[in-house]
Amino acid sequence: MNATQPMVTTAAPSVVPGSLTRAADAAAAFDRYPQYQAGMRWVAEFVTQPHPDLGRSGAVCPRLEPAIRANTVWLVALTVHGTTPADAADAGRLLLDLFEEVAAGPHRSVAALLGFFPGLPSAQAAVFIDGGHGLLRPEAVERGLMLGEFHADSTVGGVHNRAFPVMQCPEPMFAIRAMTPHDLLFADQPATPSADRLSYLLAYQRHIGPRLSPAAREGLEAKVSAARQALSSGESS
Question: For the chain, what are the domain ranges?
């Protein structure tokens, strides 16, 4: 770098003061954060409803409505000073830490934190959200947390119907929740690179394994062994 050129630094992301609110109280913030209004409408009209293209019965996300009823869903707005995947990953880490604060206690397993980015240009949302998710997902899983990536142009399909874009949301958003036994569906995906798949399965085993029945733990160990074998075969080929 030329000595006459100053080093360019990007400020860290931060929580917008006063933006953290429970979903039950979010309407009071709609005037300041229209993203909350759009997000809660999307939750009510899509996320908590069944859909013919989902590939299974029940709501698109069966966990969110019970969490809303339990008053354990939080919304927050973040300020970011860059639009790269690395900027998104930094913002996501802030959300992971914040989730651990707001979800502390007996209701952690049904809590969720929805993080919005009011100042993010819509043209940059896809690269920001998807790129940041790709960088941060391994870290989130290691912590026993699930990181959801949402934006208006998402093409990420559902587990039961890959052609159904379940992550399309009118506002760019990250969603954080605790890992549950159901998340084996997401940890054990054949299309996931072998190293990542094994890492996810091991994290699932560490965080969820003790809560499983003996039969389920045995089945999980078989999946872990198969993932290790697949990784070993790939490395040796």
Answer: 14-178, 186-236
